[in-house]
Specification:
Layout (H helix, E strand, L loop, with lengths): L1 H6 L12 E6 L2 E6 H11 L2 E6 L6 E5 L1 H18 L5 E6 L5 H16 L3 E7 L8 H14 L4 E10 L2 E8 L9 H32 L7 H20 L1
Parallel strand pairs: 1-4, 5-6
Antiparallel strand pairs: 1-2, 3-4, 6-8, 7-8
Length: 239
């Protein structure tokens, strides 16, 4: 059926029933009677294919129609292969979800968004737990905030029967922006590392200075006096 639909998309040769057509090619374009264009196509061993029927006059080309259809089908197949299928992954919470369970599901949500999928997270209220719907909303908003580097909110928390749901869509690769809070934290960590590095360098410099003895406690001055005395005694022996 798909092949038939593509075949019927273009009028070819005698199917073109208008009086004149505009034939386009590498050398430009020329308006001529349709009968003349058909004769020229036959002489070149190709087909006259109408590629723009709504133009005045319709636009045609001299091409091998079978080869043209093959290229069109191949291009359509490549386009379909490049299309990314976006799935919606669901994550379920309870109104009083524990911290370990929350972190476990947050990790999976990051993986889903990184893979290009959407995430629909919801809190399910069973029975009288619907009284904690505000608590469920806070949990979903926290969930969205923790995922801000991986996705963006497509739908804020909404109550749908016994469920309150939020939808996160993946951010495009390379455009994820860091939050101001995260940038401030990274800046503080970098400053702390630099301060620790400087403190370590200062400590090592102080240790090296203490190892060098001054003239007051013997050290280099004492060594110089000993060398001078040894030379004097050696001179006296030679005399």
């Amino acid at each position: 059926m798909k092949n038939d639909k593509l075949n019927n998309k273009y009028r070819v040769n005698e199917q073109i029933r208008v009086r004149e057509v505009r034939v386009v090619g590498e050398g430009g374009n020329t308006v001529m009677p349709t009968r003349q264009a058909l004769e020229m196509a036959r002489q070149q061993g190709v087909d006259l294919v109408e590629i723009s029927p709504n133009a005045q006059p319709p636009v045609c080309r001299f091409i091998d129609y079978s080869k043209f259809l093959y290229q069109q089908k191949k291009r359509a197949k490549e386009m379909k292969a490049k299309q990314v299928k976006v799935e919606v992954k669901e994550i379920r919470f309870g109104p009083q979800t524990g911290e370990n369970d929350y972190n476990f599901k947050l990790k999976h949500a990051k993986e889903f968004l990184t893979e290009g999928n959407k995430v629909r997270a919801y809190v399910f209220f069973r029975g009288r737990s619907i009284l904690f719907k505000e608590q469920g909303e806070v949990l979903l908003l926290r969930f969205a905030n923790d995922l801000e580097d991986y996705g963006k909110v497509e739908q804020l928390p909404q109550l749908e029967g016994k469920k309150m749901a939020i939808i996160m869509a993946p951010k495009k690769a390379g455009v994820a922006k860091k939050s101001q809070q995260k940038m401030d934290r990274e800046r503080r960590e970098a400053e702390a590392k630099e301060a620790a590095k400087q403190a370590k360098a200062d400590t090592e410099q102080n240790v090296d200075t203490e190892d060098v003895e001054t003239p007051a406690n013997g050290g280099l001055f004492a060594n110089a006096k000993i060398s001078e005395e040894a030379l004097r005694k050696l001179q006296e022996t030679k005399d």
